[in-house]
Design a protein that fits this description.
The structure holds two protein chains of two kinds.
Chain A lengths: L18 H20 L2 H8 L1 E3 L9 E2 L2 H7 L5 H32 L5 H13 L2 H15 L5 H25 L4 H8 L4 H29 L3 H7 L6 H11 L2 H22 L17
Antiparallel strand pairs in A: 1-2
Helix pairs in contact in A: 2-12, 3-12, 4-7, 4-9, 5-7, 6-10, 7-9, 7-10, 8-9, 9-12, 11-12
Chain B lengths: L3 E8 L9 E8 L4 E5 L6 H9 L6 E6 L2 E2 L10 E4 L11 H11 L4 H14 L15 H13 L5 E5 L7 H18 L2 E6 L2 H7 L2 E6 L2 E6 L1 H6 L4 H6 L5 E7 L2 E4 L2 E4 L7 E6 L6 E2 L6 E11 L3 E8 L2 E8 L10 E5 L6 E4 L4
Parallel strand pairs in B: 3-8, 3-9, 6-7, 7-8
Antiparallel strand pairs in B: 1-2, 1-4, 4-5, 9-10, 11-12, 11-14, 12-13, 14-20, 15-19, 16-17, 16-19, 17-18
The chains are: A mainly alpha, B alpha+beta.
């Protein structure tokens, strides 16, 4: 995450001897990183346009837009799954922010008895694999009538993602000076306006970072969605696994690209918040 | 402008058994410039935050004029606090910072622009209006923080250590600025400081705090001439004190018997005398001998450290004589009218 924007963190001007060599290394490393991210996408792209492609051939024997036409048609339900995934991702992210900001604030600003235990319990869903607890959750959700519903899937997606939001926000608030809020009150701002005009700008980079984690975790969730959604709630990963199991490589790879696109788009739009120049993750800093 | 009255004001922080502020009774007059003075941790900033409404008192009441404001939220209280670290909002320009409070009051945009403009002119910040706080020096930040508070025309201005983050020469400048603005606007001002010199130079009256309580209130002069306790004398730099027992007009202590003019009641007392009131030589009354441990030439005067029964006293005298007294036993006299006698409170 850190290396995304402004590689390298060491300063070229401080390097004595051969600035040109350094420049070359600098460019080479950036190229390597970009290639590392993009190269795997190229075979996917090729495969998605292939009609028949068997072992000894280096390139497909025939090209065709069949896969793309198919996933674009209502028949494939890809559009539906995409919308489901986006809605679930957005609701999970918003819920995680609403829950995670106050939780992170409490953890970041205060010391209290049993804090270590609370932190451990918050981290527990990351440490314990979801599969280990999902059966119990499944039974519970059946009793509560939450299985096969979008809401149930949202809840279960919060399980592995919320800890990341809380962790990020508690880091932000550990570096936050509450007196800025007191100053705003004293200058005549009420609680809501203080939050909007003073607190929010300070913690925004943290919220963006945390939301990114949460959205991508929800976006790539398969097992939890399948078990709690019960086949009724179809998201992109669910569809992807179905096509992969059916052995249709062209459609599967086309779907993979659809699946990758939002992640890359989000990274591009939020990368400036992830930069070292924006003061880590915000929080004003205590003087 | 309004007066501020504190009645039996106490505050304990959650989880703390000791009250940070205890039973404060204090009235600040309209337009007065008062200093809350005390060492760190004495509860002076807590008192300021109570007046600002940023903390709720555990007990007691606060009045602005005749209005009880104890339960009024800080944003409606018309007392504006300027924090020690200025706390300018880092992502807003200086102009936006100064206009923040006016925007929160939802004033007309033109009115805001005009008042901000006037305030920036008063504070000589016009050229810096577009800058971000991080691009300003400490003194400029302090002026911007003051401007942000004063543009609201508060009834009460609360300053937390307004000079402590500034360099010495900036401190003089800022002190004069605060004084002239306070005088011209007449805004009731309470400022907190740990520096007794700052309080003396700036305040109409000083309220000295130790241990969450106000110990003595008055003009700066009385803290030097009539301190209420040995600790107060010492806080104001005077360690020339010794315990004794008073009967009639006499105090008996370990270095002798002294005649005093004090009307303090008979009993255990502390005797305090200012360094410049002690006379060299035997003047016939209240004389004693002491070893001069150190003689320091200060240009206009000499400063002597003398040993008085194990305690170190300070004597200030004219540098005219030029004699080197270091290491010698010399006689000193205490003029009876200059001796300040503090009755020891039974503890």
């Amino acid at each position: 995450m850190i290396g995304l924007r402004r590689f390298p963190s060491w300063d070229r001007r401080e390097v004595k001897g051969c600035p040109a060599c350094f420049q070359v290394i600098h460019v080479a490393v950036i190229v390597a990183i970009v290639l590392g991210v993009l190269l795997p996408v190229i075979p996917l792209l090729v495969w998605s346009f292939s009609h028949s492609w068997f072992f000894p051939e280096i390139l497909p024997m025939e090209l065709s837009g069949r896969a793309w036409t198919y996933i674009g048609s209502p028949l494939s339900k890809v559009a539906n799954a995409l919308i489901n995934s986006l809605i679930i991702g957005a609701v999970v992210t918003a819920s995680a922010a609403v829950l995670g900001i106050p939780a992170g604030r409490a953890l970041g600003l205060n010391r209290f008895r049993g804090k270590t235990l609370v932190e451990f319990l918050i981290l527990a869903p990351i440490i314990v694999p979801g599969l280990a607890v999902i059966m119990g959750i499944h039974v519970l959700f059946i009793r509560l009538g939450l299985v096969d519903t979008l809401f149930g899937v949202v809840l279960v997606h919060l399980l592995p993602s919320l800890p990341y939001m809380i962790m990020v926000m508690s880091g932000v608030f550990a570096n936050y000076n509450v007196e800025f809020e007191q100053q705003a009150y004293s200058l005549g701002a009420g609680r809501i306006r203080t939050f909007v005009h003073v607190t929010l700008p300070a913690i925004l980079p943290g919220i963006v970072t945390g939301s990114l984690f949460v959205f991508l975790i929800s976006w790539s969730q398969y097992i939890l969605t399948v078990l709690i959604g019960g086949g009724r709630v179809i998201t992109l990963p669910v569809l992807l696994f179905a096509f992969a199991a059916a052995g249709d490589n062209a459609v599967t790879t086309a779907l993979c690209i659809v699946f990758l696109a939002p992640a890359i788009l989000i990274l591009l739009f939020t990368s400036r918040y992830l930069s070292g120049e924006s003061g880590a993750m915000g929080g004003f800093g205590r003087l | 402008m309004s007066s501020v009255a504190l009645h039996q004001l106490s505050h304990s922080y959650a989880g703390s058994t000791y009250p940070a502020v205890k039973d404060i009774d204090f009235t600040i007059e309209k337009g007065e410039l008062v200093s809350l003075l005390g060492p760190s941790g004495c509860g002076k900033t807590t008192t300021l935050k109570l007046i600002a409404g940023l903390l709720r008192p555990t007990s007691g009441e606060i009045y602005f004029d005749a209005d009880r404001v104890t339960d009024v939220k800080p944003e409606r209280r018309e007392a504006v606090m300027v924090f020690q670290n200025y706390l300018l909002f880092p992502y807003m320009s200086i102009e936006e910072n100064v206009g923040f409070g006016l925007r929160m009051r939802r004033l007309n945009k033109q009115v805001i622009a005009q008042r901000v403009q006037e305030m920036l002119a008063v504070m000589k910040l016009e050229k810096l209006r577009g800058r971000k706080p991080a691009q300003l020096s400490g003194g400029q930040q302090q002026r911007a923080a003051l401007a942000r508070a004063l543009v609201l025309q508060p009834k009460v201005l609360l300053l937390d250590e307004p000079l402590s983050n500034l360099d010495a020469h900036l401190r003089d400048e800022m002190r004069e600025l605060i004084l002239s603005i306070q005088r011209s606007l007449g805004v009731t001002t309470i400022f907190v400081t740990h520096d007794q010199e700052e309080a003396v130079l700036l305040a109409d009256r000083i309220a000295l705090m130790f241990d969450g309580k106000i110990q003595q209130v008055g003009e700066s002069k009385i803290f030097y001439e009539r301190p209420a306790s040995r600790r107060i004398a010492s806080f104001f730099g005077n360690n020339n004190s010794i315990s004794g027992f008073k009967e009639n007009r006499r105090v008996t202590c370990s270095i002798g018997e002294f005649l005093v003019e004090s009307d303090a009641a008979a009993g255990p007392v502390t005797v305090v005398i200012r360094p410049e009131s002690i006379l060299f030589g035997d003047h016939g009354v209240n004389s004693f001998n002491a070893l001069v441990k150190r003689q320091i030439y200060m240009g206009t005067h000499n400063r002597y450290r003398i040993d008085v029964d194990g305690a170190e006293w300070e004597v200030i005298a004219s540098a005219d004589s030029g004699a080197d007294l270091e290491g010698k036993r010399v006689s000193f006299s205490l003029p009876p009218e200059k001796i300040w006698v503090i009755p020891e409170r039974g503890q």
